[in-house]
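Title: Comparing notes on inverse folding

I've been comparing how different people in this forum approach sequence design from structure. To keep things fair, I'm posting one structure and asking everyone to reply with a full sequence. Here's the target:
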């Protein structure tokens, strides 16, 4: 994916979008504000490419994105049949060219410093495979869930493309869609195999709208974590064993791969999860 001939992009922002006509333009505008903030710090050659993947929307989402893209040549729209956010994020990441990948859902927001903070963290800590920042949550959430949400979602994550490729991207199997676990287990694999650079600065806004992924899990997040499977819907409980089997299968395969080949990317964790706190 090109950038109007201006040189290579520093980051790719992949945006999965499904029936979010009422929120997609504010989401994309927040990315543009974050790009402008980055350019104010680093100059006009600090380029970011944006790939929106419409996941089979039946509303005006793709039309709105196409119209928005006319004024933003660094933004590209891809369309696919409805296959879930994991597949959409993978498609967006694959369509980009930058060495750093970021994510924003079509119903959430970046705050202006987000892209710059993430790039600074990874520049300052080349040993880190990914960076994480703080998350603003407006919903009433059980306090014990708050740090877990920040660790598991991906809108506050910037990952080196080499680390994304190593873990195999997001899970795409149907069971993950039922459990809404694609982002959590993507994050879990990153944490398992790579050091993370961390800033507690809240640089993204995770919003709740009727019917979005966060809203569908409202009951779980308002209950204490020890409620476990009881806080899940029947459909989620049925998917849980298959999801955990697939996750463990991939984790073991990655551990074997890490031992079997020379690795040119950021160091792979051997001693367990590692967090590097940013300034």
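Reply #1:
Here's my take.
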């Amino acid at each position: 994916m090109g950038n109007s001939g201006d040189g290579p992009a520093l980051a790719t922002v992949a945006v999965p979008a499904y029936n979010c006509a009422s929120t997609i333009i504010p989401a994309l505008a927040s990315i543009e504000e974050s790009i402008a903030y980055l350019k104010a710090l680093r100059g006009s050659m600090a380029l970011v490419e944006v790939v929106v993947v419409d996941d089979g929307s039946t509303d005006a989402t793709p039309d709105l994105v196409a119209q928005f893209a006319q004024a933003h040549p660094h933004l590209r729209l891809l369309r696919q049949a409805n296959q879930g956010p994991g597949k959409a994020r993978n498609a967006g990441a694959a369509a980009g060219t930058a060495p750093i990948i970021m994510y924003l859902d079509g119903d959430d927001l970046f705050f202006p410093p987000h892209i710059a903070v993430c790039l600074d963290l990874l520049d300052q800590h080349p040993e880190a495979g990914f960076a994480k920042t703080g998350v603003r949550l407006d919903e009433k959430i059980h306090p014990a869930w708050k740090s877990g949400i920040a660790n598991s979602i991906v809108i506050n994550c910037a990952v080196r493309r080499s680390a994304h490729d190593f873990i195999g991207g997001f899970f795409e199997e149907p069971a993950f869609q039922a459990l809404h676990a694609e982002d959590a287990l993507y994050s879990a694999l990153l944490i398992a195999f790579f050091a993370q650079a961390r800033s507690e600065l809240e640089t993204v806004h995770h919003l709740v709208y009727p019917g979005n992924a966060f809203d569908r899990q409202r009951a779980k997040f308002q209950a204490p974590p020890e409620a476990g499977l009881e806080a899940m819907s029947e459909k989620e409980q049925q998917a849980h064993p298959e999801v955990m089997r697939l996750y463990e299968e991939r984790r073991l395969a990655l551990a074997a791969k890490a031992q079997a080949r020379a690795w040119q990317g950021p160091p792979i964790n051997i001693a367990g999860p590692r967090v590097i706190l940013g300034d």
